[in-house]
Amino acid sequence: MIREEPEKPIVVGIGLMARDGRYLIRQRPPGSAMAGVWEFPGGKCEPGETPEQATVRECHEETGLATIAGRLRRRLVHRYPHAWVELFYFDCTTADPAAEPRPETGFRWVEVQELLTLTFPGANEPILEELSNEAGRTTDPT
Ligand SMILES: Nc1nc2c([nH]c(=O)n2[C@@H]2O[C@H](COP(=O)(O)OP(=O)(O)OP(=O)(O)O)[C@@H](O)[C@H]2O)c(=O)[nH]1
């Protein structure tokens, strides 16, 4: 089978949902590309949607949490064997500061130190490094 190269990457919005130095993550569901790998909530833009809108919608759909997108932390382009993606990572918070993700979604709050021990999609590497540096700065009293 000949597969045609797409002309443009698939645009994806990703939410770095933060609370008390922890981030909301889950393992990618069975049957999805990279099943079992950990991920932040997010997904592809629908037609006419901005990456920020897609982030807020996907975070809400996937976790059940009303989401507020803050600054765009990073935009990067990455080629996986399964897809060519343009990823927009937004710092996010939950609209209700005490709300929890629906348990059946598998999302949980994880400290940055633990994030570093888990396997994420390759494109996330610079983000994880940045979160780790920031966490180091907050906890280091010197
Ligand atoms: N959700 C999410 N996707 C990520 C992350 N890092 C990363 O490279 N991606 C990539 O971004 C793309 C997101 O696609 P997806 O399959 O989750 O999107 P979706 O929810 O719209 O999928 P669907 O087509 O099954 O509805 C995948 O290629 C995934 O590998 C991450 O931290 N979270």
UniProtKB/TrEMBL annotation:
Q: Which cofactor does it need?
A: Mg(2+)
Q: Which GO terms describe its biological process?
A: DNA repair; DNA replication
* Keywords recorded for this protein, A-Z: DNA damage, DNA repair, DNA replication, Hydrolase, Magnesium, Metal-binding, Mutator protein
Q: What is this enzyme's catalytic activity, as reactions?
A: 8-oxo-GTP + H2O = 8-oxo-GMP + diphosphate + H(+); 8-oxo-dGTP + H2O = 8-oxo-dGMP + diphosphate + H(+)
What PROSITE patterns does the record point to? NUDIX
* Transmembrane segment boundaries: none
- InterPro entries on file: MutT-like, MutY_C, Nudix_hydrolase, NUDIX_hydrolase-like_dom_sf, NUDIX_hydrolase_dom
Domain of life per record: Bacteria
Q: Which top EC class applies here? A: hydrolase
For this protein, the record's SUPFAM superfamilies field holds: Nudix
Tell me where in this chain the Nudix hydrolase domain is found. 7-135
**Gene3D superfamilies in the record:** Nucleoside Triphosphate Pyrophosphohydrolase
User: Which CDD domains does this one have?
Assistant: NUDIX_MutT_NudA_like
Provide a Gene Ontology MF annotation, just one.
Answer: 8-oxo-GDP phosphatase activity
EC numbers listed for it are 3.6.1.55
* Family listed: Belongs to the Nudix hydrolase family.
PANTHER family (UniProt xref) = 8-OXO-DGTP DIPHOSPHATASE, NUDIX HYDROLASE FAMILY PROTEIN
Output this protein's name: 8-oxo-dGTP diphosphatase
Which organism encodes this protein? Answer: Singulisphaera acidiphila (strain ATCC BAA-1392 / DSM 18658 / VKM B-2454 / MOB10)
